[in-house]
Design goal:
The chain has one domain (4-254): Alpha-Beta Barrel (TIM Barrel). The protein has helices at residues 16-33, 49-56, 82-87, 98-103, 108-120, 133-137, 141-152, 182-199, 202-207, 218-225, 242-253; strands at residues 4-9, 38-43, 62-65, 92-95, 124-129, 165-168, 210-213, 232-235. The chain is globular. The protein contains eleven helices and eight strands. Strands 1-2-3-4-5-6-7-8 form an eight-stranded parallel beta barrel, surrounded by six helices. It binds 2-phosphoglycolic acid. 2-phosphoglycolic acid binds at residues 9, 169, 174-175, 213-216, 234-238.
């Protein structure tokens, strides 16, 4: 059974006090929900990861970093290694976000190295892929998404399908208010799932959680989660508000025709 992730990517938002306040409001409510199949997750900025881990200790809330270095250690000013994240007890890390690809020249090859470093340190990578508006308009979505998949996952061994999470985030839908329609999202998710079947196994394709991201909010979460191959969301703006985050977790709990 695939897990449903309601994953908040906080980007460069929320300082120490706001992180504490978010957790103080959200954790008691999450504890009341008795979640099993749904995994709530937040990705604060590096300096607040430890506080987020402390504040969510003993609850079902998971904490993720937003990025990691390709290097293991040494003279790389400003960078944070996978082993440093692991030393905090962190279990998840986002890689390949379109903002990192755009602003830090991240490529599929660097994403691939980051995935390897994370896996070596027992951290689950949450790998983002997705096409730009121009690529979609040129009918290149399939080619781009499958190219990113094979580039990012080159020589990455997947056996259970639980080693890694994928997020399909069409770049044109991120922070723009333009969500992909459930049909558009499901079409690409199905393409990715079939690629996993052919390139790994039925088991990996069946077990790997495949999230959608791009302008998700409580109002469109249900229709996205109603799609067979969408196993949750990577949510930016709407994950910053406590009530919206909780609402999306509750929608996740009721999704897939069952309370989970
Ligand atoms: P958004 O961001 O929900 O604000 O569009 C999603 C993301 O970048 O992960």
């Amino acid at each position: 059974m695939r897990k449903i992730f309601i994953a908040g990517n906080w980007k460069m938002n929320k300082g120490l006090q706001e992180t504490k306040e978010f957790l103080a409001t959200v954790i008691p409510e999450l504890n009341k929900l008795k979640l099993d199949k749904v995994i709530p997750l937040i990705a604060p900025a590096y300096p607040f990861l430890e506080e987020a881990l402390k504040g969510s200790f003993g609850s079902c809330m998971q904490v993720s970093a937003q990025d990691v270095s390709v290097h293991s250690e040494g003279a790389y000013t400003g960078e944070v290694s996978a082993s440093m994240l692991a030393s905090l007890g962190l279990k998840y890390c986002i890689v390949g976000h379109s903002e990192c690809r755009q602003y830090h020249n991240e490529t599929d090859s660097t994403v691939n190295t980051k995935i390897l470093k994370l896996l070596e340190n027992h951290i689950t990578p949450l790998v983002c892929i997705g096409e730009t508006l121009q690529q979609r308009e040129e009918n290149k979505t399939k080619e781009v998404v499958l190219g990113q998949l094979s580039g990012c996952l080159q020589n990455i061994k997947l056996v259970s399908g639980k080693e890694l999470i994928l997020a399909y985030e069409p770049v044109w839908a991120i922070g723009t208010g333009k969500t992909a329609t459930p049909f558009q999202a499901q079409e690409v998710h199905n393409l990715i799932r079939n690629w996993l079947k052919s390139n790994y196994s039925e088991k990996v394709a069946a077990e790997l959680s495949l999230l959608y991201g791009g302008s998700i909010k409580p109002g469109n979460m249900k229709e996205l989660l109603d799609c067979e191959d969408i196993d949750g969301g990577l949510i930016g703006g709407a994950s910053l508000k406590e009530e919206d985050f909780l609402e999306m977790v509750k929608i996740g709990k009721k999704s897939k025709g069952q309370e989970c």
